């Protein structure tokens, strides 16, 4: 009898604490970072983009926003895109809940090779990001696509078609347009890029946009945007 009691106690001790397993399988937000690598972005600008994401994800202030969530963890996938034929997962889904995990993510992005292709398909980026969210291995309270780029959609179907499809699935799309005064393939955008993103790209519950005035200010804009996304701050409250 005593042996059975000891075995039962040992078995009970081995069981997970109620809710612990579920917490490890959950995140506050599943976030796809969809980053433009079309030919309008040169090597220096591409470096500034990646450096902006690397430093933002590893920033202790951003991690504090992560840890302040109900679960205290986020899932992030990093995707690069160009024309309708090109979308690539650079870093697949990673669960980030600690500084070490954030630092590892930043190092992984620094080591990843980069490809640049012609044309700009925001619609293709959104479609691919929708598929990525469907493959996220963790249950998420919110699902968000973060689209950054320096041009309007000029390849594939209109961006608003994929935007509307994502919103219908309960996905939020936020925007980070990079205002670049250089012409793209010899042409200036038909409308101001921030207006284009507002009308055709962002959508869903709590959607917002933060404009990077140029590539040099991109890192600051990324940090502000990530804090607002992760902390789910209401409209009108933008972190410094």
Which architecture name does CATH use? 3-Layer(aba) Sandwich
Measured by DSSP, the beta-strand proportion falls in: 15-25%
Shape: globular
Main sheet: strands, sense, barrel: 5 strands, mixed
- How many domains? The number is 1
Q: Output the structural class.
A: alpha/beta
Bin the helical content.
40-55%
CATH fold label: Rossmann fold
- According to CATH, what is the class? Alpha Beta
Q: CATH homologous superfamily name? A: von Willebrand factor, type A domain
Distance linking N and C termini: 65 Å
Biggest β-sheet: strands ordered side by side in the sheet: 3-2-1-4-5
Give the SSE map.
Blueprint: H1 2-14, H2 20-24, E1 26-36, H3 43-57, H4 60-67, E2 74-81, E3 87-96, H5 99-111, H6 122-134, E4 139-149, H7 159-168, E5 172-177, H8 193-200, H9 218-231
Parallel strand pairs: 1-2, 1-4, 4-5
Antiparallel strand pairs: 2-3
Helix pairs in contact: 3-5, 3-9, 4-9, 6-7
Describe this structure in words.
Helix 3 runs antiparallel to helix 5 and helix 4 runs parallel beside helix 9. A hairpin with a 5-residue loop joins strand 2 and strand 3. The protein has a 5-stranded mixed sheet, with helices on both faces. It has one domain: von Willebrand factor, type A domain (Rossmann fold, 3-Layer(aba) Sandwich), CATH 3.40.50. It is globular. The chain has 240 residues and is of the alpha/beta class.
């Amino acid at each position: 009898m005593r042996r059975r009691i000891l075995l039962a106690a040992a078995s009970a001790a081995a069981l997970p604490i109620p809710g612990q397993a579920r917490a490890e399988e959950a995140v506050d937000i599943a976030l796809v970072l969809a980053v433009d690598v079309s030919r309008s972005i040169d090597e220096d600008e591409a470096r500034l983009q990646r450096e902006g994401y690397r430093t933002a994800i590893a920033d202790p202030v951003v991690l504090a926003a992560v840890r302040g969530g109900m679960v205290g963890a986020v899932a992030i996938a990093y995707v690069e895109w160009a024309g309708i034929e090109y979308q690539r997962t650079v870093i697949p889904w990673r669960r980030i809940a600690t500084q070490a995990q954030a630092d590892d993510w930043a190092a992984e992005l620094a080591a990843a090779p980069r490809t640049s292709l012609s044309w700009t398909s925001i619609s293709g980026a959104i479609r691919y990001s929708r598929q990525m969210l469907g493959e996220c291995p963790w249950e998420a309270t919110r699902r968000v696509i973060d689209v950054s780029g320096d041009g309007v959609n000029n390849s594939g179907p209109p961006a608003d078609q994929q935007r509307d499809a994502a919103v219908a699935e309960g996905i939020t799309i936020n925007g980070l347009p990079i205002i670049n005064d250089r012409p793209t393939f010899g042409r200036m955008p038909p409308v101001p890029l921030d207006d284009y993103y507002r009308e055709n790209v962002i959508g869903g519950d709590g959607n917002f946009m933060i404009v990077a005035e140029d590539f040099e200010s991109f890192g600051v804009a990324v940090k502000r945007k990530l804090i607002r996304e992760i902390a789910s701050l209401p409209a009108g409250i933008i972190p410094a």
